[in-house]
From TrEMBL:
Keyword Transcription among UniProt keywords: no
Native species: Rhynchospora pubera
Record-linked InterPro entries: AB_hydrolase_fold (IPR029058), Dienelactn_hydro (IPR002925)
PANTHER family hit by this protein: DIENELACTONE HYDROLASE, PROTEIN AIM2
Protein name: Alpha/beta-Hydrolases superfamily protein
Amino acid sequence: MASSLCCSNPPNLSATSGEGTVVDDFGGIKSYIAGSVASKRAVILISDVYGFEAPNLRKIADKVAACGYFVVVPDFIHGDPFKLDDSTRPFPVWLQSHTTEKGFEEAKPVVAALKEKGASSVGAAGYCWGAKVVTELAKAAEIQAAVLLHPSLVSVDDIRDVKCPIAILGAETDHLSPPELVKQYEEALAEKSEVDYFVKIFPGVAHGWAVRYKADDTTAVQKADEARNDMVEWFNKHLV
């Protein structure tokens, strides 16, 4: 995960991006929120290593909210996104301060806060680093549906232990979760008759395509939109 592929195309972060609102405390975490808090269906979007100020991520949150969901994008990396050009703090060092285990522990109070506000079902989607956090939530039965987009750090054993419906959206070019590994995820899920699943490998895209696309690249935008639509359809199917 420390390679350039994982962290390529870093976004231009913006604290004011998006149509939603930033709150200082949602389940104990500073978060971007979008949609009606009165919605009974909620979605947590968990960022990659660049955090919750990524404009594309907030656009996705806004569009998911427009489909009738209350959406929360927590700042699980606490204002400390990975900096690709900081040679004094390479990725392995950054990761020591931002483990997915810590992200999972901080995510549980966010789920609890959503339920306290009246959500009857909670889904979670994660990108890269965030996909591992979502996987842990799915293993612990904390959520009712999961979506992993170009995941990293997720093992086949992790997938075997998930306890809720899960969709996995992979890239044709991705050494972190290459198509061969995604196929192994699918085979593991096929053995679990009690868990609904959907697995798709997107041709012609690379790791990060679903959230770190360039807005002026029409093809890249279309592929990212397709991934978002697949995510929403999965939540529509499983969040009631």
